[in-house]
Amino acid sequence: MTQTDDKESAPLADAEEMPSASAEGAEPGDEKKSRWGGKKDKQELEALTKAKDEAEAAKAVLQDRFVRLQADFDNFRKRTVREKAESYRAANEDLMAELLPVVDHFEMALGTVAGSGERLGAASPSKDGDDKSGAALIKGVRMVCDQMTTVLTRFGLKALDATVGQTFDPARHEAIAHMPSETVPENNVIAQTRRGYLLGEKLIRPAQVVVSSGDPAATNGDAAAGVDAGE
Question: Which of 68, 74, 141, 190 is the most buried (most CB within 10 A)?
């Protein structure tokens, strides 16, 4: 073989040994397409996205249910506290209603003794021993009455007194009689016959009062004037 033939065959051999440029360029693209663009990978991605959406929806449902349960429990707690307080007040009110007549009798007894100046055993010949015993008994009764009133006050009981000349209030007073009065205007309180009581701010017994029907002289004068006008 001549030197010329050797030179012409050498490039052909080199070309056969070198890999195709187009083949090298296609290999990375094919690998990327196989790794990320396959049908199986798309299905897996869609499945993961769907599972995520379902988890988010389930979380929202559970969160809403938790908030509702928390609100229901808070309402139940408040209702329980309110019912307990109402039951407590009702029990106190019933007890106060039963004890108030006892307090009335204590006060009536002490008022009678103080008003008349009587002492126990005064009907018999007075002796120093009898006077001392009677005074001690009255003092003891007064102490018992004061102690009972103090205990009831501690549980919310408040006295409600109607004073002479006070305007009659049907929400707090109970009129047991109407009497004419020259000094007390019409529809005002002349006297209180029984003390009223409040339990907290609730009226449990109104004060019993005598109410003025006005000045009888003025009433008679108006009537006479009406008769004269008619004639």
Answer: 190
